[in-house]
Amino acid sequence: MQTEPAPEMDYFAALAALEWQLEMGADEAILDAPLNRYDLPDSAPAAAPRPQSPSAPAAAMPAVLDQAAADPVALARAAAGAAADLPALAQAIADFDLCDLKKGARSMVFADGNPAARVMVIGEAPGREEDLAGKPFVGPAGHLLDRMFAAIGLSRAAPDAGAALYITNVLPWRPPGNRAPNAAEIDMMRPFLARHVELADPDFLVLMGNPACQAALGQTGIAKLRGQWAEAFGRPALPMTHPAYLLRMPLAKREAWADLLDLRARLDAV
Ligand code: URA
User: How far is ligand 1, taken at its centre, from the CA of residue 241, in Å?
Assistant: First the structure.
């Protein structure tokens, strides 16, 4: 079938089309030219049948099918619990194949800063910059986060545990288009987060935004939760508004500053 050549776009139409794609979350070019996948021949190989014969030994089933058949949260709990230290936990997450976000991400973003820090910050999920760098909070929100904690004498670069910061996220893989993590993703990755906190063993947690509160406290509503100390993973946790929100709503910085001072006072008291 002959197709009409696409009419030439003017500059403004092309810019509007690009902006629309960004809004939809398509913020990276995968190929040099667009590919219409509906035009491709249907050549996908049929899926291999699972062994049916009762004589087929269970051990012959590929590990990936075994994983898929099991409860992902239970598998995450088992994998996290078996990790004896932080490098083993990072490896266990890298090996965990049941979260679909892994397929679309470039990097597994585990943590940054000093694992001996008294304060551990839990964010939401990597964004574009974090996915490229393989480190949490390295984009604009991360720069603000660094300035916020520097104002109370804490830094992810500090070698001394008392002045240090340790930073991770609820999800280690970037959700497409930076959408918010969904409940299934948070539930699936929570056992890894719980073990991460247990192994790093900070004195205080800071929960940045709703997904962190959902994962750590089972609650959302950051406008009400912020500034109210709670207990998460067996230690004091302070919910705060996420720096990305503070970039959009600078007026909320006043409350965030009060929360930081409260954290500083707790650190100084113990
Ligand atoms: N926002 C987050 O919550 N985490 C990151 O790592 C970056 C931005």
Answer: 12
Structural domains of the chain sorted by starting position, each given as residue range(s) with its CATH number in brackets: 71-269 (3.40.470.10)
Model confidence at 205: pLDDT above 60: yes
The token pair that represents 169 in the structure block:
């996220």
Report which of residues 60 and 218 the model is more confident about. Answer: 218
Residue whose CB lies within 8 A of the most ligand 1 atoms, among 101, 130, 144, for a mutation test: 130
**Nearest atom (ligand 1) to Cα of 212:** 3
- Among 110, 124, 168, residue to substitute to test ligand 1 (most atoms within 8 Å of Cβ): 124
CA-to-CA separations, 246 to 35, 211, 238, 260, in angstroms, rounded = 39, 16, 16, 14
pLDDT band, residue 9 (cuts 50/70/90) = confident
